[in-house]
Design brief:
The chain has 307 residues and is of the alpha/beta class. Helices cover 40% and strands 16% of the residues. The chain contains 13 helices and 9 strands. 43% of the residues are buried.
Length: 307
């Protein structure tokens, strides 16, 4: 059950204005692939900006997928903008493709990095912001690392893995479905060699579908520990002790690779950035509960880091 849950989560411009509290919301089109929401504080002429990058799967600007709605990234953006920090969050390109019923089957992990860099360049060219930070959540952490190099002032990893995705999945399979461990290792070995294979158990089809394999191979070619070492900028690494998908051990791996980075482990915070008091059932249910509030320690940690 846990493996199935993990797999689902892994894969699964025109501007308008509206006043909200002490910031202004603007719908911004970066290019034909990327649309998002910019929140700008009303009290500062040239604020700092945080670009928020969503995690894996067809995740929209608010941190939601079709059957999983928590509004985690929307709440994060609003909380930060209420503290006088501009934020921009955007739909991943696959979200727009699904809506238009025109999915690019040749999409690669590198395409997400291209999109993130396009967003950064859009706001750098506007010259309206003091410092630009990138905050990447889950898969977006690695995307953010790659996009931050020579582009951003600072980087924030939110529940980001410290190992390449093949090692993360191998660990999950070993814990939850050990009978598929050797098959999983074998397929990843094939992908590492630049090939694809149709020989895998049906239970692993969501991970190793032939159409997905080139994307996975591209994704696993990046080691977060190697990439974070390349960042000569302020770095904040955040993880929660109740994260079902990315353990705090992953955050510590990133910290080991980048000793100058700040590390914040938040007690009881889960993968979608909310506090969990109960068991794994409560944790899983929270992925579809929009009423939950974000961990206040999360916002405090980001504000302190930027100050």
């Amino acid at each position: 059950m846990k493996l199935k849950f993990l797999i689902i989560l892994l894969f699964v411009g025109s501007i308008t204005f509206a006043q909200e509290k002490n910031y202004t919301a603007q719908e911004v089109t970066i290019n034909k692939l990327i649309d998002g929401t910019l929140l700008t504080p009303n009290t500062i002429k040239k604020p700092n900006l945080i670009i928020i990058i969503a995690g894996s799967g067809p995740t929209d600007r608010d941190g939601n997928q079709n059957f999983l709605k928590s509004n985690s990234l929307k709440k994060l953006a609003q909380a930060l903008s209420a503290k006088a920090i501009a934020t921009f969050r955007y739909d991943k390109r696959i979200v727009k493709q699904i809506r238009n019923r025109n999915i690019d089957k040749n999409m690669m992990f590198d395409d997400f990095v291209v999109d993130a860099k396009s967003v950064v360049n859009y706001f750098k060219d506007s010259k309206k912001y003091n410092k630009i930070y990138i905050a990447g959540h889950s898969q977006g952490s690695l995307v953010g690392m790659l996009a931050s190099k020579n582009n951003a002032y600072g980087f924030i990893s939110l529940a980001g893995a410290g190992q390449s995705i093949d090692k993360v999945i191998i660990e999950q399979v070993e814990k939850t479905a050990p009978m598929y461990l050797e098959d999983t290792k074998r397929v990843f070995k094939v992908l590492e060699g630049g090939k694809t294979t149709a020989k895998f158990p049906p239970a692993l089809a969501s991970v190793f579908n032939l159409e997905v394999q080139p994307f996975i191979a591209n994704w696993m070619s990046y080691n977060p520990k190697v990439e974070i070492k390349k960042l000569n900028m302020p770095i904040l690494i955040i993880n929660g002790t109740k994260d079902l998908q990315v353990s705090e051990a992953e955050a510590k791996l990133l910290k080991e690779a980048s000793p100058h980075a700040a590390l914040k482990i938040i007690d009881k915070m889960n993968h979608i950035l909310v506090p969990i008091e109960g068991d794994n059932l409560e944790n899983s249910k929270s992925y579809n509960e929009t009423s939950r509030k974000l961990s206040p320690e999360l916002i405090e940690a980001i504000i302190d880091f930027m100050e």
